[in-house]
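pasting for the record
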Amino acid sequence: MKIEHLQNKKIVVVGLGVNNQKLAAHLKRHKIKFDLVDEWRSPSELVEKLDGYEIIFRTPGLPFFSEAIQRVIRRGGKVTSQTSLFFELSPCPIIGVTGTKGKGTTATLLARILEKAGRKVWLAGNIGLDPFDFVEKLHSDHIVVLELSSFQLQDMTRSPHIAVVLKITPEHLDHHKSFEEYVQAKKTILRYQKKEDFAVVNYDSEVTRGFAKLSLGKVLWNSVESSVKPGCFVRDDKIYLAREGSEEEVMPVSQIKLLGRFNLENITAAIAAAQAAGVNDIAVIRGAVAEFEGLPHRLEFVRESGGVKFYDDSFATTPETTIAAISAFEEPVVLVAGGSEKKSDYADLGKIIARSKISALLPIGVTGPLIAKAARKSGFAGKIVDRPFRDMKEIVAVANEVARRGDTVLLSPASASFDMFKNYKERGDLFKESVRGLK
């Protein structure tokens, strides 16, 4: 599709968030006329405002199954998005990465591998550029690596050339009506693939394993539990790449800088996707993986002070991601957890806290007491610092007092950040700033 095909259509852009700001600027550059709806007091008011438009560009924050959007569809209007338009305009292959967590890490590592192999790569999404920052610079021999959320996927009618599906766990249930709706949104990444396309699917999750049958393309697996073929897997603390009829060792796990089983899941997915994109040089893959230090706020090592190590895992906004972080450590851990409410169930996290090497728990924010309650209910025998905290500086100071030489202090909140902080980035940055200020 060419952008000119939007000429003389009655178009409205709904919501002027970060994504749609770039879209609106692109439409203006090409002299495409459109209206903007950025405020509405009720669903019925939005329904009225969208009446009569042929094409509606939906912001990802407006649920696809909202009454306003569904009414547009019922009367024959076209509901699309910035992401959908980018897929139509891109002259080069797109690798899409979806999953509940790990999208940014996987996409970034994959981009590094492709760059090391000599490809011109554009990394886009939450961790990279906005696609409309570079859409006009693309050539057919380039490649785009793009993070795709469930919000973006819901109204897509195209799938990427290479679709990467990471583990999927309950998330964004304040946006989706159910976990099943969330899963169905994720499945869109494979639903429109063709025979010449590729799907890289997490084999270790029963939920994602079933995705494979949706793709008409070639399926590659990634696993940390099974020797999958074709694809990438971990066996005996080594990473292997399995091609048709053969397997080759990539590297020992000990050469990887990232901690945790979940990062092995991300790494094996990135390697399998690189193979699908035509990277066959094991030395190139090994080099890129060995050099990769991860992303900020994802189990990020901050510093060691007085024999105590400090890790920033502020990106962990669900119980599942905090459980994964805890499992990455063998030494005693002082856990800082809690934040704003996301309607999460902390029972499993409480059990892990009670059974693992957590020596102390600092519950913070609205959900901190809920996490502490779940830990106590599961028989946690360690220290729980039940007290209000003014700010992150105080949290870090108390954690440092509680920790002993050889311990690790881990900020892994299992919750969103909006009660005390602007977002997870501010929370993590303030944690790192406070840790670096310790004497």
